[in-house]
Fold each of these.
Amino acid sequence: MTLAGIILCFAYILGLLITTIPGGGYLLLGLGIVAALLARQRFAIPPAIARSLRLPESWQLKWNPKVCIAAGLVGLLASLYFQARTPYPAANDVSKLISSSSVNSEQIVTVQGKVIGSPRLTRSGRSQFWMKATQVSQVIVPAQVANSNQAVSGNLYVTLPLLQGTGLRSGQAIAVTGKLYEPKPAQNPGEFDFRAYLAQEGGFAGLSGRQISLTPGTPIPQWGWWAIRQKIIQTQVRWLGSPEGPLVSSMVLGSRAVDLPYDIKDQFAKIGLAHALAASGFQTSLILGLVLVLTRRFPARMQIISGTGALAIFVGLAGLQPAVLRAALMGFAALVALGTQRKIKPLGSLLVAATFLLLWNPLWIWDLGFQLSLLATLGLLVTVPPVIKRLDWLPPAIATLIAVPIAAYLWTLPLQLYAFGLVSPYSIVVNFLTTPLISIISIGGVVSALAALVWPLAGSAIAWLLYYPTHGLIAIVDFFSRLPGNSIAVGTISTLQLAVLYGLICLAWLQTWWQRRWWAAGLIAVGLIVLPVWYSYTTLFRATVLATSGEPILVVQDQSRVGLVNSGNEAIASLTVLPFLQKQGINQVDWAVATDTQHNHQGWSQIVDQLPIKAFYTSAASKVRASDRPPAIASDQKAVPLPSLAAQKHYQLLASGQTIQIGSTAVQPVSTDLAVWAFKLYDQPWIWLSHLKSSEQNALVESGQLAPAQVLWWTGEPLTNSLLKAIQPQIAIASATSIDPDTLAQLRQKKIEVYWTGRDGALQWQPNQGLTRTLESTENEVPLL
C-alpha cells in the first residue's frame, strides 16, 4: 500500500471521528490546504537543539502538496457522508405516533410487522428483538380501536415477557400489543444513552409488549442462519449443561449470538476477559487454520474457495458485527495472499479493512466493539514483537503468552478508561492463565460445531470433552472476580486525555528515541491519569441529584469523602447508581443514609456487593425489618451482616435533631416520624421532604422543627403555603417526572428557581458553579402532568 493511500485512508477515518466537532470536516480541509502550502519548505533548527538531537540544522518538509489537498477533501467528504448516512425518522415512521400527551400516560397500540434477527434475553428477564413495523392500530380503551391499519415504517425496539418471545424467528410476521414509548436520552452524567443507541440502529421508538399473536395466512420461516445457530447451541448444551454449554457456544459464535447468563458475562468483563466472548479475530484464525489443514493437499484455488466459504458461514452465524467483518476481511486478504504467493502487510490489511467497513457503514466509527477490536489487533501487530524481544530470556511459548495480553491491554486501556473509567489489575495475569484453556475450548468448540451440522450426537460428544476445561475457566474467572480490587474505578478520562495517551503510545511505537525511553512515556501516561484524580479528591465538592424513577437519590462528593442518600430499587442501584459512582472514580462510600421510614433497602444489597460502605445512618424511630435489611454493609472493606450492625459504630440510628458532621457535610433527621431530613452541604442548607400530605406538612410547621433552607428537595407533590413560608427556599428541586401545577405556580410566584429531574435530568451543585442540569431543555418540552 502506497504512502498516499495510507494518508487518504487515515484522512477518511479522521473525517468520521471529527464529526463530533461542528464544522470539523471544513477544519480538516483547511489543515490540508495549509499543509500543501508548507510542503517542500525548509526550516532552520537551532544549532544547539540540532546537535543534542543529532539532527541536521536544516529540515525540509517533503510531503506532496496534491496528497495534502486530497486528504483534506477526503476528510470533508467523510464528515458529509457521515451526516448523510445518519438515520432520521421518516414521515410515516412509527415513532411519529407518539403523542406529547402520552409522556406520562400509557399509549397502547398494536403493531404489525416482521421480526428482525433473533430474540435476546434482557437483564430484566424479558425477550427483546427488533421489528420492522408495517401497520399500527392505536388502542384507545379496551375493545375500542382507532386508526385501524395505519401504514407505518421504521424499526421498533420490542420487549416481551419471556414465554411470549420464546420461539420467534427472523422474518416471522407478528402483531404485538403493548405500550409505545419514546426512548430516553442519558439523564445522568455518563449514563448509557438509550436514545442514541436506538438511533444508531435505525430505531426511534420502543414497544413494551404485553401480548403477541402470529399474523394469520403468513408462512413461518423454517430455515435460516438462526436455525443453524440454534442447532449448534442445542448440540453443545445437551451434554455440557449450563453455563458451560452456552459459554462454549459464545466462544465460537460470539456472545451476541448466544444468551449467555449475565452474571458470567459480567464476571468476564470485570477481570478483562470480555474479548474471549466476542466473535472476532481469534475465531477467524482458528477456522482458517482448520480449513487450511484439511485442504493442504488441494490446489491453492481450492484452499481459497474453501477458506472464503468458511469465513462466509462464520459471518452468517455470528452476525454482521463490525468486529466480525473486520476479522473476516483480514482473513480473506490472507487467503488471497496465500493463493497469489504474495506477502501480505498486516498493518495495511488492517487499515484497508477498517476503511472498507466504514465506507459501508460510517456509523460503525462509534461502535465500541469495533474500536476495541481495531486497537487490540493493532496492538498485537506492532507491540507483541518488541515485547517478546525483551522477554527473550523466557521460552518462546511463555513469552508469547505474556506479550499478547500486555499488547492488547496497553492499546485498549485508554479507550476503556474513556468509556468505563475502570482498570482491571488482574487482567494480564488472568489472560496469561486462561489463554491455554480458551484456545482448547475454542478449537474444540469449532470442531464440535462442525460435527453438530453433520451428526449432532458426535457434536455433543466432542463438546462433552470440553467440560473440565470450561468448568476450570469459569472457576478461575470466579476466583479472580471475587478478589479485592478486581476492578478499580479511576473515573472516566476526557477526550483530550484520550488523545494524549494514544499519542504517547504511538510515539513509543514509531520513534526510536521514545522506544528507548518507553518507561518515560509510561510515567507521563500514569501522571496524566492520576494527577487529575488526585486534584479532584483534594478540591472537589459536588452534590448530584440523580434522575431516577421512584426513590430520590443524592450523591455527595466532598473531596475524598463520598456520601450516598438512598439507593433506589435493585434495578436503579445496578443500572444507575453504581455506573455513576464507577465513572466518577469512586471505590467506596464513606457514609450512607436511608431517609425513608419504611426502610426500603432493596438497592443497598446491590451496592454493598460492589462497594464498601463505612458508615450507615437512618432514623431512630424506624423499625428495621429483617426482610428489608441489606445482606451486608462493609466496614473497613469487610462485609458485616446488617442484623449485627445496630451494636456497632458504623451503623447508627439517629434521633430527631441529632446531627452527624462528616467533612463539609452535616446530616440530621428533622422528624423521626416523617421522612424529613436536613443536610448542610458546604454551608448550603438543604431540606428533604418525602411524600408528605397537607395535614402532615401543617403539623410539621406547627411543631417548629423546620428551619429555613436554601434548597428544598422533595418529590414533586403539592406543597402548602405555610410550609414554603417556614422553609423560605431559593431553589426547589423535585425528584419527579412532573410537578403539581398549583405548587409550580406558587413557587414561580414567589420567584423560587424550580428544577425537576423529569425535565432537566440529573442536577449537580458546586459552590463555585451553582446548579447545572444534565438535559438542556426548555420548560415547555415536558408537560406538567
Amino acid sequence: MNRKAAAPRDAEDLAMHRGTGRMEGLVEPVLFGHRLKVILLFLVVSIFFAVQMLKLKPDASFQNMIPASHAYIANYLKFENELRPLGNVVRIAVENTRGDIYDPAYLETLRKITDEVFYIPGVDRGNLKSLWTANVMWYEVTEEGMTAGHIIPEGLGGSPEKLEQVKTNVVRSGRIGSLVANDHRSAIIMAPLLESDPQTGEKLDYGQLSERIETLIRQKYETGHIKIHITGFAKVVGDLIHGARAITLFFAITFALACALLYAYSRCLRSTAITILCCSLAVIWQMGIVSLLGFGLNPYSILVPFLTFAIGVSHAVQNINTMASEVHNGRSKMEAAKATFRLLFIPGTVALLCDVVGFSTLLVIDIGVIRELGIGASVGVFVIILTKMFLLPVLMSYVGVSPACLRKQERKARSRHRVARALSRVTEPRIARAVAVLALVILGTAWHFSRDLKIGDLDPGAPELRSTSRYNQDNAFTVSHYSTSPDVFVVMVTTKPGECGSYPVAAAVERLQWEMENLDGVESSASLFTGMKKMIAGSNGGNLKWAAITRDRYISNAAHKSLPSELYNNDCSMVPVMLFLSDHKAETLSRVVRAAERFAAEHDSEDARFVLAGGNAGIEAATNIVIKQAEVQMLLLVYGIVALLVWWEFKSWRVTLAVMLPLYVTSVLCEAIMAQLGLGVKVATLPVIALGVGIGVDYGIYIYNRLEHFLERGYTLGNAYFETLKTTGTAIAVTGVMLALGVMTWVFSDIKFQADMGLLLAFMFLWNMIGAIVMLPALVAILMPRAAPRRKVSEAASKAARGFQLSE
C-alpha cells in the first residue's frame, strides 16, 4: 500500500472526533517537530520525580483507616482521651506453657515485659495496665471496712505465701477473664496508643511500632515455656506493612511477565524495551507526585504502582500493534509514529480519562486510605496519558520496529484468521440474539447469587490477614482464654456535668446493659455502675442483696470515688458502656447497632442521652455504614460519568449502551463471586468495582473506535468487525491477559486482602475483555441493525485526508 492510500485512514478517524482532532492537530507538530527537546524535558521531569519518590515512606494511621466525618467517629473523637483504652489498644498476652501465672520466674518476666512496653514510644503510659501497674488494684470488704492494694505486693520474692497472696489478690480484683486468663495460665498487658509520637510530635509509625514490639517483646522474651500473643489494630497494620514489603517481589514478577508477553506479541526487542521504559517512568512519576502531595505508602495504596504499570503496558500494546501495521504498509519510522499518534490519541485519551473518572469516584468514600488509593490511581493514569500518548510515539519515531516484527506482521497479513472470522459471526442477527439471551441469563444468575453479598468482615480475627497468620492465631488464643472479647462496642451515655453517677443515669444504663446482654452476639457488658454495685455490696458486709444501684446520692458518691477514673470523663458528664462482642462480623455489628439506636431513640432524655459509638467494634460499625452508603453512590457516579464520556466520544446512546452493558454484567458477576467466596464489601474490596469498570471500559472504546472506522469506510458490520478483530481485537486480548496476569501475582501475597483484590481484578479484567470482544458487537448488531454499510466519508473527512496527503 502506498502512503497516499493509507493517508485517509487517520484523517477519517480525526474527522469523526472533530473536537479532540483539533487538539491532536495542535499537539502533533510540536511533539514531532521538537523531538529532542521533548525527550530532554521528560528526562528532567523523570529525574525530579525519581528524587521525590525516594522520600516515600510506609504510612498508616488509625484515623486514616476510619471515616473521620461520620457521626459515630465524631462522637468518639470528642471523648478520645477517655475512650482511648477501649479503642486503639495493643493487648500482649504472656502465657506460661508449663503451669500457671503464680510462678516467680513468670511474674518476673511479666514485670520486665511491662517495663519494656512502658518505654515504647507511642504508648499511653498513664493508661497502661498490667498486674504490675499501680492502676490495677484489688478491693475487699473486711470487718474494718473497705481495703485495697496492689495485686503484686512489695518484696514479692518466691515464697509460697507471697505467691498465694498474689493469687488471692487476683481473685479479689475481679480481673479474671480480662487481665488474667480464665485458666490462670496467662496474663495480659493492655497498652493504649497515642495517635502521635510524644517524643517527635509526628504521626505514630505503626510499622516501626510493630517492629519494636516484635523485637523488644516477642523475640526477647519468648522462650520454651513463655509464649507471647499480640493483638490490636496497631499490630494488624504493622503486619500488613511488613507483608507489603514483599510486594517488590510481585512487582518484579509482573515486570518480567510484561516483558515476556510484549516480546512474544511483538517479536520486537526495541519496541518492548521502549514500552517498558515509558511505563516504568509512569510509575516513577506517579510515586513522585504522591510523595509531593504528602501521602505515604499504606498497605492499600502500595498496590497502585502495580496498576499504573499494568495499565500503561496494556495501552502501549495498541501502540506497538499500530506502529508495526503502519510500517508494514510502507511508511517510514517517522510517518508510522505520526500515524500511530493520530490513530490512538483520541480513543486512548478518552479511555484513560474513563480510567481517571473510575478511580476518582473513590473520593466519595470518606475513608482516608481509600481516598489516597483513588488519588494515587488517578494520578498514575494521568501520567500514563503523558508517557504513553506523547513520549512513546516520539521514541518509536527513532527506534521503529525490528525486521522480526515486520515478518510477524507479514505472517499475520497472510493468515486466514480463523478465530477472528469465527468471532465476527456474533454480528449475525441470529447469533447476536443468542449472545444477548445468554448474557441476560448470566446477569440474572449472578444477580440472584449477589443478593447474599454482605457489608463488612465475614470472618473472625483480622480478615486482612490469612487465617494461618500469627496474628489470627494470637487472636484465637485471646478469644478462647479470656471472657472479655477484644471486640468492644462502646455506647457513650452523656448527662449534665457532675451527674454521671446519679440515679436517673444509673437506671438508664442498667436498662441498656440488660437489653444488650440479652442480644445475640453480646457476651457481656461493663460500666461505671457495674463496679458501683460491687462497691455498695462490699460496704454492706458483702451482702449480694445490696449489689444494686441506689437513689441515695451519698452512697453512690462514696462508691463512685473508689472506682477508676477511666469509667467516666473528667467533669463526670459521660459514662462509657462497654459491650463485649463475640466477634466483629458484619451481621453482629449490624444487630448491635440497630438495637443500640432503637434503645437510644426510645430512652433518650434530659438526664441521659445514648450516643454511638466508640471502641474498636463501634469504629468498625461506622466504617461498614459509610461503605454501605458510599457503595451505591460510587456505582452511580462511575457508571454515569463513564457513560457520559463514552457518549461524548461516539455521540450515540446506542453505542454507549453497547459499551456499558458488558461492564455491568461483569460487575454483578464480581459481586456474586464475592458472595460465594465469603468476601464482604469493605475497605479492601469496595475499590475493586470502580477499578474494574474504569479499566474495563478501555476495551470497549478501542473495539468500537476501530469498528466505527471500518464502518465509515463502507464495510458491512460483519466484515468491519472481522477487520477490527484482526488488528485491535488481538491487542485487546493480549491486554486482558496481561492485566490479569499482572494482578494475579497478588494472589500469593501473605496479606489476604491483597490476594482477594488480585483475584477479583483478574476476573474483572478477563470478563470485561470477553464482554468487549463477544457481547459488544452482538449488542451493536441488535441496537444498530442499520450500522452498515455506511455512507461515504464525510466532507470533513475528505478535507482532512487531502490535508494529510499535502502534508506528506
Amino acid sequence: MKNKITESTINKIQDHLKDYIMEHSSKNKNRKFTCFNKNAHSHKDQDPSAAIVPGSSGRYWNCFGCGAKGDILSESSYNEGIDGFQNGNYVASLRSANIVILPDNDESGKAYANDVLRVIKNEVKSIKIINLPGLKLKEDIVDWVGNGGTLEELITLVNTADETVESEVVQNKPIGNIYENEFCYYKYYKKQIINISNFIINPKYYIENEGDTQIVGNIITEEGIIGERTFKTSDFDDVLSFRRALNSFKTFYIGRVEDLQYIRFIISSKTSDTRKGVCFSGFHKLNNQWCFVTEHGALNSEGKPTLDIAMQNQYAELNTNILKNDVITKEELLEVAPYLFKFSILKNTAAILGYVCGLFLKEKLKHNKIQYNHLLIEGESSSGKSSAVKYIITPILCMEDGILNAAQCTDFALNKTASSSNFIPLILEEYKPHIIGKNKVDLISGVMRNSYDNYKGIKGVATLDKNRTFIPRASVILSGEAGIEETANVGRSLRVIFATSYFDEETKESLEKLKENSILLNKLGASLLKEALKMEEDKIKEIHSAIFEKAISNNIKNDRVKNSIANCMIGIALLKRVFNNLDLNMQECTGFTMKEIISSIETGAYEDLLDGGTSNKTVIEQNFETMNRMAANNELYRNIDYDAVLDLDGDFVLRLNYTCFYDRFVKYCREHNVTHEVLPLSSFKKQLSNMQYCKSYNKPVNFSVRQENPKNKKTFRCAVVYINKLREKNVDVDFIADDNMID
C-alpha cells in the first residue's frame, strides 16, 4: 500500500500540464504547442501540432500530427525518456535514487516541486529541494546558469543542503479549511485545493482603541507589495466590506464570509506589535506623557518618533504632513525671518502668527482650563485674506487639505471635520452670511461655541436607532468679506481686517518671498512642534497668567478678549524660543521688537474686535445700534418711540418706549437680514435691567400717541438708560441721543 499512488495525487500532478508546457515547449498564435513526441514529426514539429483537449479541465493534450496524446505524465515520458510514466508508475525507476529538485522561482514551480516530493518521497533514497540563490521572479536553472552560476556552485549547494522532508514545504498550517501559501489564500473544498485570492495580507501592527480594533498591513501579490491598507475588525464581517477595504483593481477575492474569519485569524497570528489608537490627530496626554499623533506617525514628549501610539485613519479629515518635515536650520530661518511680520500691516501679521504659533500650545493650555480662541479674517475682495491663509497659515501647519467653503459645508461634514483634530484648525473661506443663509450661519456659530467651550454635539443617525456624538476640537478660522456678528463668538475670537490699501512694495515682496519659501515655513512648523512638546504645562500656565494679569492694558476689560490676546502673545513667545535655540535674536532678524509686536496685537484687538471700546458689544448694545439706524431712517419716531432728556435728577438719559415699537424693531431686523441676535421683549428687558448703564427698565413715562398731535400723550412703561455710560461702551446712539434735540 505504501507504493500506491492515490487518484487525488495524480489529479494534482495533472493540474500542472499548462505549467509544464510553458516551461518545456513553445506556442504559436493559435495556442498550439510543439509536440513532445518529436521523433514522429519531420523538422521536430517546428510548426506546432499539439493542443490541450477542450473540456478536459486543462489536464489532457492531443497531437493532430502524430496522434500522440495523454496527460502531463505521458508528456513527461516523451520528453524525459522515462518508461512507465504514462501509467502513473514512473516512481519504481527512481527507487533508491538520490533526487535533487530545482524548482522555478514562482508559485507554480514551487507547488510542482512539492507535488513531486509527496509522490516519490517513500520510494527514493533522499530528496533535496534547492532554491537557487539570486533568482528573480519566474526565473529557473537556465537563468541561474545564464547569470553566471556554475556546476561547481550547484554541487556545493546540493552537498551543503539538508534533506527535505514534506513538513518543510508546508509553509503554513491550515486554519479551518484555509491556508496561506506564497501569494494566495487557499481553500480545501471537496477534496480539492482552490485559491480564493491572488494576494495575502502581511500585517505590520495592530491599533487598539475603545472602539473598533484595526490592523495595518501590506497587500502582497506575485508582483510584490501593491500598497498599505488599514482594516477594521468589521471589514471581515462581510465580503463587500472586505473588498472595499482592499481598494485595488489588482486583487480578487472569491471566498465566502466564513473564509474571512479564518483569514483574519491567520493575519492576526503573524504579528504581536500593538499600538494605542487615537481617533483624532494632534496632542494627546497618555500615561501622564504628552505626545503628538497624525496619520503619518507619532512623536513623544521629547520630540522623538515613537511606535507606541497610532491614529486610526478612518477619522482623518484635517490632515498635516508636519512629521515628514525636518526642523528649520539657522541659515534657513535667517532667510525667511525678515518677511514673517511684513506680509500685511503689523497688527494683522502679529495676530496671525501669534494665533498659528499658539495652536502648538493649544491643548496644553486647555489642559490648564485655558480656552483657545478662534480667528476672524475679514476684508474687501483682493485684500490679501486668501493669501494669508494659503501662503502663511497652511504652510506653517503643513496642512494637506481641510479648507472648506462656508456655503457648501453640511451639518454632518462640518461636525465630523471639526472633531478630527485638536491641532489643525477648521478653515472656512467665503463666509458671506447673507448668501449662505441663517441655517449655515447658526451651524457655524454652534461649532465655534462648542469648540471653545468643549461641548459635545449630538447628531441623530437616520438609518440607526441611536445618536452619534461629535466633540468639536478644532479652532475655527473664518475668512470672508463679512464677519460673524454673534456677540458670543466675537468674544471668543481675534479679528484681523485686511484692506487693499495695506499693499505696498514691501508687503508684496514679503508675501512673494514667503510664497516661494513654503518649504521653509513647513520646517518652521516642525521646529515649533518640537519646542511645544518640550514645554512644561506649568511653565505655559505661568507665562499665560503673567501676560493676562500684567502685559495687557487696562483699557481692555473683557476677560475672553484678554484671554485671546494672551494666547496670541504666548504663541509669539514660542516663536521666539525657536529663534533663541538657534542663537538668533528675533528682533534683529525680523526688524520688530517684542514690545512692538505685543502692542500691535493689543491695538488690533482694541480697534478691530472691540471697535475702540473696552469690551465687545453685548446683544443689548447691538440692539441699541440697530434702533439708532431705524431712527436715522425715520422708522422710529422721536417723542413717540423714544426721547433723550435731562431727567429730574439732572441725568442725560435715553428713554425707550419699547411697548410701542419693539414689534416693528423685530420685523425690521428680519426684513433687513440683521445678523445679530434679536431677543424677545421679555428677555431684552431682563438683560437690560442688569446693565450698568440701565437706570430703570420699567419706569412710567408720558409719550405722544400720534405724530400729528404731539400733545395727545399717554403713560407707558419704558426703559431709561444713561447716555454717557452707553457712549463709554462705544455704543453708537448718536442719532437718538442727539444733545441738540433736548427739549
Amino acid sequence: MWPATFGPITLTNNLNQIFDRNTSIWVEGNYIDTGRNSIKMAAQKMDENGEPVPDTNVGTYTLTSKGAHRGAEVSFELTDSTYNGPIAPAYVILSDSNFEYIGFVRFQPQIIRGEVSNPSTVGWQGKEQHAKISIKNNLPVITQNDNPSTDLFYQRTNPEKKIEQKKPSNIDVRDIKFWVNGSATGAQSLDAILNDEKIGVYRINRGKNEIIYQPSGTFVGRPQPIEFIAYGSDGHSYLGNFSQTVLGIQLQNTHDIQGVTQTSQITIISSPNEPGRPLDSNWPIDFISNGQASKQLSATKNGQTVGLYQIDPNTGTVSFAPDKNFIGQPDKVTIRVTSASGEQTNLQYQPTVDAVRPSARIAPTIGEQGQSQTSKVRITSGSDQVMARIDANHPARFIINGQVSNAEKISISGIGSYILEPSTGLVTFSPDFEYFGKPKGINIQVTDDNNTPAIATYNVTVLRHQVAQQPSPAANSGDQGVIEESPAGETVIQQPVSQQQSQPVQQPQTQQQPTPQPTPQQPVQNVAEQVPGADNTELPMLDDTNAWYMIAIALLGALSGEE
C-alpha cells in the first residue's frame, strides 16, 4: 500500500534526477494527488550505453493513480510498430509530503516484434496436409528491476503488487496470399512443382487461415517450401513459408535366380533418396486376394501355382519362395498396410526369377577293337547358389529317342553295349569283338538342385587291329540302330546291316603242280621270291592282309600256266 503521508509520484526517463537533491522532483515531473489522475510520457529508444536517445519517441508510458492507499499502475503502448529493439526504461519516483526523496521503481519494456508462424507438416502419401497461419503479437512485455530491500520505500510497501504487466496476445490474421517471385498473388490455388514436375496443389482457406497441400498420389518426399504473406490486424504484413513432408510406404520388387527365396522389406520413407525406417510392429499387414486377408498366399501364373508368398508381421518382410522349376514373373500380389491411425495403403509386389542353366560334358574315349572304354559325366552349376552334383538323389540317366530312360544298360547289336552307374555318372562302353569305327554318341542327362537338366553326349572311337583274319564290316557312322524290347534294366538296339560280309576268292587248284599257299602272317614279297621267273616289280602295299593273299594266288596261277 502507498502510505497516505506520501505526496507526489513522478514518472521520468532520467535516473539522474533521483539523486539530484537540489531539484524539486515533483515540479519537474507531474504531481499525482490522491485522485484517479494519470501521467503520460514519451518512450524513447535506448543507445548502446543504456542512455535514452532524445526525440526518438516509439511509444507512450502511462502512470495511473488508483486512489488513496491503492497505489498506481504503469502501462506502455508501442506507437511505432516497425520498431524492434530496447526501450529506455521509465522510473516511478515517490516523495513524501515534505518533497523529500523516498524511493523509486524501474520499468523497461522488451519489444517482441510480430512473428508469423512458419508451419511444417508431415503427412501420408496422397493425404491432405493443413497448415494453420498465425501471428504472434508485437506488444511489449514489461519487466521490472526492483530497488534494494534496504530502501525505505521497500521496507514499507510491496511495489510488485502495485504494478500490473500487460500480457501478450496474438494478432488476428486478416488475409493470406501466396508470395511468388517477390510479390503477392491473388490466386486461390497454386501448383506444387519439383524438378519441373507437378507434385500436388496448394490451396488457401481464408475462413480458417489455412494453407492446404494436396500431394499427387505417387509423390513421396519433401517439396520446396511455399512462401506466403499474412496481413495482420495491426496493419502490418508478415512473410512466412510452409514446408511439407510426404511419407510413403515402400515395397521394392525383387529379382533373383531360379530356386532362391526372395525377400523385400516394407518401409516408411520420407524421400526417395533416403533409406526408409521399418514399420511399427503393431501396423497390420495382409495379403488381399478376392477380398480376403491372409499372411500366406499361393503365387500363381496363368492360374497355375508357381510358389508361395509369406508376410512376417513383426518386421514387415514379404518373402517369395518360387517352385524350383519356375522361371519368369508370377502374377502381382496386393498387400494392404494399415497405419496406427487406421489409414490403409495398398501396395503391389511382383518378383522376377531368372533361369539357372547347368552344363554337362563327357570326355570322349578311344580304344582298341574288343576293348572296353570308360568315361564319366561331369556337371557344372549355372550359379553358386544352386548346387549341381550327381548322386542317388540326382542320378544320371540315358536319353533314348528323346526320352529319359531308367535303364542302366543299353545294348546295340553289331556295335556293343553301354553301362551307366546312375549315382556316379560313370559310363562304360564294351564294343562287340569284331566291331571297329565311330558310332553315334549316346546322350546322358543329369540335373541340379532345381531339377534343371543338362545333357552330355558320350562319343567313342574303336580302332581295328593291325592284323585281322577276317575284318568285320564297319557299321554306318551315325546310325544308332533300332530299339527293341528287352529285359528290365537293359535296352537292346538292333543295328541294321549296312553291308554284307565279304567272302574270300577261291582259285582253282592245278593237280600237275600244286603250289603251297602262304600263311596270312607270311609277307607277300617272300612268296614272290619263291616263284621262278618272276620279275622284281614292286607291288603296291595294301593294309588288308586278305588282299595280299588273293594277289599271291593269282601270281602262282599265272606261272603255272606258262609251264
